[in-house]
Write a structure and sequence with these properties.
This protein is 37% helix and 12% strand. By secondary structure, it is of the alpha/beta class. The protein folds into two domains: 33 residues; 130 residues, Oxidized Rhodanese, domain 1. The chain has a five-stranded parallel sheet with strand order 1-6-5-2-4. It has a two-stranded antiparallel sheet with strand order 3-7. The chain is elongated, with a radius of gyration of 20 Å.
């Protein structure tokens, strides 16, 4: 078989694969859609802090949907004081170095390995997912996964670890996942 034949086989295979993907109702998107953040219903807080964040964010109240909503540092700290469960979407080594006090490690890229942990968390439990900060989208992706698993109240702490640390809020190190 010569190079020309192999080339044609590869091209025809790619075309057939793209066509099959196009016809599939669960097709893999060829272009990733940009995820727009929806802010919690306290839009006055979100609007006042939005100038510090990327201009592409959609800032609108989310009062009807159960989809994950973004929250600011002030809202995250309020939920922290109400003993809401914080989930750290970063890798375990980063979590062990330091994390929000009382947070639980649930690395996005190892999500499936944490099924036993998720089984202990009732679907009605409010959850706050965070990662490094506004340049990190692991908390958004983790929140979307938790939403798919039917968790009803999921928040995305958009400022994440960077904002929390800058505010000198409670942190700890090590790994204690009881």
């Amino acid at each position: 078989m010569d190079f020309k034949s192999v080339f044609y086989i590869v091209i025809v295979s790619c075309i057939i694969g793209l066509f099959a993907n196009y016809l599939n109702p669960e097709a893999i998107p060829l272009i990733k859609k940009e995820r727009k953040l929806v802010w919690d219903s306290d839009s006055s807080i979100a609007k006042s802090n939005s100038e510090n964040y990327e201009s592409t964010l959609t800032i609108k109240p989310n009062t009807e949907s159960r989809e994950p909503v973004a929250i600011t540092l002030k809202q995250a700290y309020k939920l922290y004081n109400e003993k809401v469960l914080f989930l750290d979407a970063r890798d375990l080594p980063e979590f062990e170095i330091s994390h929000i006090k009382g947070a639980v490690s649930l690395p996005y890229y190892d999500f499936d390995k944490y099924k036993s942990l998720l089984d202990t968390i009732p679907l009605t439990t409010p959850l706050v997912a965070y990662c490094d900060g506004k340049d990190c989208d692991l908390s958004i992706m983790l929140s979307d996964k938790l939403y798919e698993k039917e968790y009803g109240k999921v928040y995305i702490f958009y400022g994440g670890w960077v904002d929390w640390q800058s505010a000198n809020y409670p942190v700890e190190s090590g790994y204690d996942q009881n």
